[in-house]
Amino acid sequence: MTFEPGDLNLTDPTTGYLHFVLYTEARLGIASSSLNAELDIEAQQTVTPHFQEWLSRLERCEPNAMHCTLVAPAKIPSLFHPCVTEDKNSPAAISGSGCTCRRAFYDPEFGLPVVGEHFKHVGTGGTDQWSYKTYAPLELRPDDIFSSFHTGRGLFWARTDKGDLSILPQKHALGYNIGYSGGGPHALAAYLTQIARNDGGTTPAGTPYEDAHPAIVAWTQSKAADRGTNELTLSDLQAMLAS
User: What three-state secondary structure class fits 193?
Assistant: First the structure.
């Protein structure tokens, strides 16, 4: 199945997950996304300002089938267990103060399911951190205009003309990366190239590698792009196309 603009979208919270394509293999216990890229956000990536901005708008919710696809089958029960900070007798508690619970969230702006995974050592002074899993949208919302691109610590974001921050649209099996010569930087450059050519308008994820503009590829492959937090505006990207 190919994805075309308007066919399938996981960016409209008013329609929930009705247009999400699921890939399953019952024999192997697999249930995951067929089109939307799954993102694993490690604890050390959560310190960036953009991640914190995104996290601050997430809303707690009851786990549903979409959240279950973000968790290994044996760990699905942990979605329904309270944190040790909420109940010291929780099944997720370890020796009274440690914890391995999970929390279900959703993004009210883009309708995406999010699962937070807690890892807390027993006692005080040890590790107490959260990591997250979610899906990337396949494109921005139909009335959004891309304004700028942001990256930091291996995370990739788009800000819209309304000021809303979104995970950069990404298709399954076309992961993004920066700072070296390889498929990840090419996939990212291809998408940024296409969104610049579309004047920031509707641009589905999955642009072929060969459509990447050489100047944008050079940027995504550079070490400078991999240093700190970086921003490219729509005008910056379009200037690269003209170079």
Answer: helix
